[in-house]
Amino acid sequence: MTDDAPFPTNGLNDTVHQRHRLGILTIASESDRVEVSYLREALELTAGNLSRHLAVLADADLVAIERGYHGNRAKTWIRITPAGEAALDAEVAALRELLDRHG
Amino acid sequence: MTDDAPFPTNGLNDTVHQRHRLGILTIASESDRVEVSYLREALELTAGNLSRHLAVLADADLVAIERGYHGNRAKTWIRITPAGEAALDAEVAALRELLDRHG
DNA sequence: ACAGAAAGGTTTGCACCGCAAACCGATCTG
DNA sequence: CAGATCGGTTTGCGGTGCAAACCTTTCTGT
């Protein structure tokens, strides 16, 4: 009861912790850049919803958005930023700490 | 790219995933019953904020609220319900799956 | 060549949520 | 018995998450 170390959930950043954004960052951290359309399918999101989450992440400078073309089709990719990597690492560390409490 | 298994974050339940509620449920799962005032300190929450989260969890039948006295002082405890345990286990399982992707 | 349909996103509108300030009823304390 | 304290709830509001509606460009059929 004299445990005054901060509880793991206090280390979580709300911007990163949101479940879809956690998914976006996780996938983004696994490869150099990711097609938005791939994210949409992998995370089973509506395009609108995904768009807003990407805007939130871009505003927070956790991902960078790159527009371009695939053939003649407009296409968008995202790339995780160094700040995004750091924030994700912090989240993962806090979650590991939390999970340690669950045996 | 033909990975059509649902992404781990899709298995997360928003009621449970919220960071403070995740903390509440985690602590509640670790002992039989917990004083609300202990939660307040451990999670560094304002009383008002905590009260609302507990109401959400109680509404969802994930915790039960027990009112009583400690000496003459009114005091409240919470106890995780079987549904709460199950929901927390599901969250933890999904998080483990997610963390597995992070090496 | 022109009318849809489709691809690939963005914006809008609204309900719900998270938060702390304000509040409430009891119980101690001088 | 006036004020401080404990233990918690309610209120008010800005912010968030969501899908429907919308926009632009590119295919496709005729």
TrEMBL record, chains A, B:
SUPFAM superfamilies: Winged helix' DNA-binding domain. It holds the Pfam family HTH_34. Gene3D superfamilies: Winged helix-like DNA-binding domain superfamily/Winged helix DNA-binding domain (1.10.10.10). Residues 21-99 form the Winged helix DNA-binding domain. PANTHER family: BSL7504 PROTEIN. This is Winged helix DNA-binding domain-containing protein. It comes from Asanoa siamensis.
